[in-house]
Design goal:
Elements (H helix, E strand, L loop, with lengths): L11 H24 L23 E5 L5 E3 L2 E10 L5 E3 L4 E5 L5 E2 L4 E2 L8 E3 L4 E9 L6 H4 L1 E10 L6 E11 L9 E3 L3 E2 L9
Parallel strand pairs: 7-12
Antiparallel strand pairs: 1-3, 2-3, 3-9, 4-8, 5-6, 5-10, 9-12, 9-13, 10-11
Length: about 200
Amino acid sequence: MRLRIPHYPLSAPRFIAIRTACFAVLVMAGLAACGSAVAHPGAGGGSGAADSACMASGLRVTVDDGAAGAAAGSTYYPIDFTNGSGASCLLDGYPDAWFATSAGHQIGSAAVWDRDVTARPVALRPGATAHAWLQVTAAANYPAKTCRPVTAHWLRIRLPGAASVSSVRHAFQACAAAMHGHGILTVQPVAPGRGTRGTAG
C-alpha cells in the first residue's frame, strides 16, 4: 500500500515563517549541544587549587640560620619560601642560587643542582612554607690562589621556572673565582614545610 502525502502549496509569507521557526529550533538545539561540552570556570578544581607557578612577588624568601647544620666541610642552609599572597601556587624543581656583592654583581659560580635528590611539585597554600637546602662548601677548603676568597653580602635566588630574582641579605664566605666543576654552592629541589636541621638530602 503506497502512502500518499497531499501537497498543499504554501504562500510566500507562510513559507518564510515556517523556515524561520525551523532555523530557530536548529540553533537552539545546537547551542544546547555545544553547551554540554563547554567547561565552566572552576570546573574540576576549587578556587584554592595550586594550578599556577609561584611568583617571586608573592613569596617571602629567607635563610634560616637557626636550622643550618655543618657536615664534612660544608654548611647546609634551608632557604624558606613562604606564600604571602592570597592564592595557592606551585613550586616545582630546583631554584637557582648565587652569591652577589653589595652592588648586586655575581660572585663566583652559580649553585649546581643536586640530582641525587628527586624533585617533586609542592603546592603552597596562602601562609604555607616550603624550603630548598643550599649546601655551602667552606671556601677555606680550596687554595687561596684558586678560590680568591671574599665575603658575599647577598644571596640571589631565582624560583624554579621563574624569570624574576629574589635577594636575601646574608654574609657568606665565597670564592670570587668561577671554579668550573668545583663550585662551592649546591642546591636541592624544593620540598614541603620548613627546613629542619639534619634533614638535608
